[in-house]
User: Which sequence fits this backbone?
C-alpha cells in the first residue's frame, strides 16, 4: 500500500456489479467477521477496529482522524504507527479492503458491508411499500452493531442503527399485518419488542397483529406484558395502547 | 488509585420520549464495570430522571470500590 497512490472512487448506491459474489465481505452486525474470497479471516483487534471504523463511516477519512479516534490516549506518533501496522495487516488480507489515497483512507468500494445493506433496507422499509422490501428487510434487522464492543465511536453508531432498525421493524410489522401475512408480522413485531421492551409502539404493533388474527386473548396478553414491564418502572401504558385493547374487552378486564 | 489494576467501566444511557402523556420519559441503561468482560454487564430500564441518577451513582460507587 505504501507508495501506491490511487484516486478515491466516488461511491454511490448504484455501484456496477458483475453479479459475482463480492471478494470481500465485512460483517459488523452481531459480531465482527471478515471473509476474503470465501474464507474467514482472523485479525488482531487493532486491525478489526480500523476496518470497522472505516466501514461504519463509509466515506474517506483523514489518517490522522482515524489514528486519533482509535488510539485516543496514545501520543500521535505512536497512534499513527499503530494505524500503519493495522493497515499493513488489512492489506495482507486483501488489497480491496482499504482504499488509500494520500492522507485519506476509506473502506474499499467493492467490500460488502452488512451494516450498509441493513441500513438501506431499513430506510426503504420506512418509505416504500414494495413486496421486495418486506422480503429482504425483516431478516436483516434483528441484530445490533458490534454489540460487545465498547469503543466510544461504536456506542453512538450502534444507537443510531438501533433506532433505525426498530422503527423499520414497527413499520414492517404493520405492513405485513395489512397484507394479511400475520405469522411474519408477529415474528417481526416480537423482534421489535425484544429489541426494546419499553417501546410501546412495538407492543401496539404486536397487539394489532393479534387483533387482525382474531386472537383477542393474545392481544390482551401482550397488553398485560407491556403493562407489567412499565409497572416495574412505576408507570402505566399510554392512552393509545389502552384504547387499542379497550374495544376488545371492558375496563374491568384491563384493570 | 495507586497500585490498582487498570480497568475501564462503561455506562450507556439511552433516553427517548414515548407518546405517553403521563410518563413520556424512557431510559435504557447498559453498564459494565469491566469492558474486558463483556458478559458481565447489566441492562435495565427507567422512567424517571431520579432513577437514572441513582443508577449512575450506584455504578460509580461500585467502580470506585473495585467491585
Assistant:
Amino acid at each position: 500500500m505504501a507508495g501506491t497512490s490511487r484516486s478515491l472512487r466516488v461511491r454511490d448506491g448504484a455501484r456496477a456489479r458483475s453479479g459475482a459474489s463480492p471478494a470481500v465481505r465485512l460483517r459488523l452486525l452481531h459480531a465482527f467477521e471478515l471473509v476474503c474470497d470465501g474464507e474467514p479471516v482472523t485479525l488482531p483487534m487493532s486491525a478489526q477496529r480500523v476496518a470497522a471504523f472505516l466501514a461504519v463511516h463509509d466515506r474517506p477519512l483523514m489518517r490522522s482522524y482515524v489514528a486519533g479516534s482509535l488510539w485516543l490516549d496514545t501520543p500521535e506518533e505512536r497512534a499513527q504507527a499503530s494505524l500503519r501496522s493495522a493497515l499493513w495487516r488489512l492489506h495482507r488480507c486483501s488489497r480491496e479492503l482499504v482504499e488509500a489515497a494520500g492522507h485519506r483512507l476509506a473502506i474499499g468500494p467493492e467490500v460488502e458491508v452488512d451494516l450498509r445493506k441493513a441500513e438501506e433496507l431499513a430506510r426503504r422499509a420506512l418509505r416504500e411499500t414494495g413486496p421486495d422490501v418486506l422480503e429482504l428487510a425483516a431478516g436483516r434487522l434483528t441484530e445490533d452493531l458490534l454489540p460487545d464492543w465498547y469503543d466510544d465511536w461504536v456506542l453512538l453508531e450502534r444507537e443510531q442503527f438501533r433506532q433505525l432498525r426498530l422503527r423499520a421493524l414497527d413499520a414492517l410489522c404493520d405492513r405485513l399485518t395489512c397484507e394479511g401475512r400475520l405469522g411474519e408480522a408477529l415474528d417481526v413485531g416480537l423482534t421489535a419488542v425484544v429489541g426494546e421492551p419499553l417501546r410501546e409502539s412495538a407492543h401496539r404493533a404486536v397487539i394489532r397483529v393479534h387483533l387482525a388474527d382474531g386472537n383477542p386473548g393474545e392481544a390482551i396478553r401482550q397488553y398485560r406484558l407491556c403493562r407489567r414491564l412499565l409497572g416495574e418502572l412505576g408507570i402505566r401504558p399510554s392512552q393509545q395502547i389502552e384504547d387499542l385493547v379497550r374495544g376488545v374487552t371492558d375496563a374491568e378486564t384491563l384493570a | 488509585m495507586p497500585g490498582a489494576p487498570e480497568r475501564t467501566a462503561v455506562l450507556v444511557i439511552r433516553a427517548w420520549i414515548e407518546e405517553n402523556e403521563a410518563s413520556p420519559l424512557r431510559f435504557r441503561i447498559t453498564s459494565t464495570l469491566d469492558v474486558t468482560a463483556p458478559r458481565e454487564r447489566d441492562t435495565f430500564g427507567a422512567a424517571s430522571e431520579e432513577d437514572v441518577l441513582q443508577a449512575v451513582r450506584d455504578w460509580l460507587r461500585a467502580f470506585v470500590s473495585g467491585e
